[in-house]
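Please discuss these two lines.
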Amino acid sequence: MDFAFENSFHADMQGFYAPAEALRPSAPRLLAFNDRLAERLGFDRDGTDADELARLFSGQDIPKGAAPIALAYAGHQFGHFSPQLGDGRALLLGEIIAPDGARFDIQLKGSGPTAFSRNGDGKAAIGPVLREFLVSEAMAAMGVPTTRALAAVATGDRVQRERAHPGAVLTRVASSHIRVGTFQFFAAHFGADHVIQLSDYSIKRHFPDLADAPNPHLALLDRVIDLQCALIARWLGVGFIHGVMNTDNVAISGETIDYGPCAFMDRFAAHTVFSSIDANGRYAYGRQPQIMHWNMARFAEALLPAIHRVAPADVEAAKALVDAIPARFRTAWEAQVRLKLGLAEGAGDDAGLIDGLFDELEKHSVDFTSFFRALAMLLRGDGATMQALLPAPDAMAPWIADWWRRIERGAANPIELADAMDGVNPLYIPRNHIVEATLDAAEGGDLDPWLDLLDVVRHPFAARAGLERFAEPAPVDAAPYTTFCGT
């Protein structure tokens, strides 16, 4: 397989990374390869068998033209600043240009220690690798901006955590791996010149239309805020809980990155937390907009030296952008929920309808994903689906009546409206109890259940016969679900 590397970060940003090498795995074996993504990237795998792919995407063979590096970054972790983090178990092989001209990073994750490993082994276990592959593919299929997984390879080695696990390497594809924490690192350690260099590079790579703005660095802040507001609204819209929204896990590209202790909500509760390390609920479902606001304030602080250098008065403009984030997010969120509810255009009373919905979902502990599909079924004249979902026949009757009146104010055909709702409200998500069962099976050597689930979540909207169990909520008597970071 040929890689047409064009490694701009390696060439233009010396001093922003450390050279790195992958550990050579003892017996690499291909677990999964994303042929559709490979085609998108322009990779031609004709003549490349599974063994060669395993060697390439495990670090055993470094492809021609690669320039492996580990990126430097800092980050606020659970509100506390860590001045040096960086790629501790990942290396960036390089950048490729897709046939449509888009630039992508190709990164190995779990490939061994780097200069930033902080005494860690730099490896990954099979469970976290397959979780990231599965969930990132599900998010992509649902239209949520995300990094992607190109390959998962078992290394043949054991990784010691609380016990020994089979080791694996994930190949991650991203528009870039520049994070809020990247800006924080160079603002904290080197000052304005480095921040300006990083900002200029980021604009050139991601947002070239901002280069001619009166203050490009202020414009960069504005654009990233916009992308993050849209991203978190999309997360909430599918019930996704990232679990570790530290600033080093916030990509300026607006893509979801670092699927550690992530999960999808079953029965709605705004305080839902799955992460074992989030004891105080900092990154609970309902707190994600506030944490996004906090993270963007940290991004603004890191950018201030560059903003000030161009125009000192623009520091106040940066503060104003940060102050406006709650209203900006609310606009993005209401637009997202209107789509889910089949409301084509906004109306003055939508805020009350939307807030009332989430009060009702929480009051009655309704399965989040199933509710919106059942709502569409009402438009088709089927009330049984909703009745089966609710704890009592009239549990949400007043809210549903308000929604119905709001629907009737439009002119859309109910069946067409229901179909449109089904196009944005997934039927199949990575249900937590099913995900965990497939990961357990994969660790034991049976990959088939995981592959079956991967196929299901890659087609999240259209019902398919025989897959009913994948749409069912977790059993009522299921134990509380807990996820772990996987590092």
Q: What stands out?
A: Residues 180-333 form one domain.
